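User: Could you check the structure of this?
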Amino acid sequence: MVRQGMPGPGRLVLFHGWGANGRDLLPLGVHLMDGLGDVVALEAPEPHPHVPGGRQWYPLTQESQAQGWPGVPKALAAINRHLVRLRQEHPWPQTALLGFSQGAAMALEAAVHKPLAGVVACSGYPHGQNRLQGLRAPVLLIHGQNDPVVPLQASLRLQALLEAQGCNSMLRSFPGEHTIPTEALTPIRQFLVRCLMPTPGESG
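Assistant: Sure, the predicted structure tokens are below.
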């Protein structure tokens, strides 16, 4: 777990992608949270099988997918231990999550049954039809229109799942592939401002 940024009214917790590590999204997080609060970057619990210094939240293989992602509960338990400790410093209603790819899938899982301020899921995907029941925080989905790793259809499925259970979600797609494009930074920043510094009478 790595921390950066200045204390403030809000906090952003980062979930890196498959093969990256806890420092990967830190510069982005600090930029997005300028004046809003601090940033905490979590690191996945397992070493990546092919990338030196890289981490994974769980094995990302076709076999794992066919088996219903059996590594997700273990990863989620590790994340929840971190989030419970962080809650002692900063309340969940003033905490937002942001993840990329595998980290986005885990950020959505981690938000279930927690009164968080919001979730930003970039190039994410669902682990199953029913796993996100109980997610009530507003969600911003970001996805590249030409993503060859996690196709845009994955975020479309996420949006449908979230809307079916009454979750406030928005999908913004941009030209580009498997990345967080520069064009997405302003919408993400605006979303975080709304979530973490709502005007009187406004929530999310």
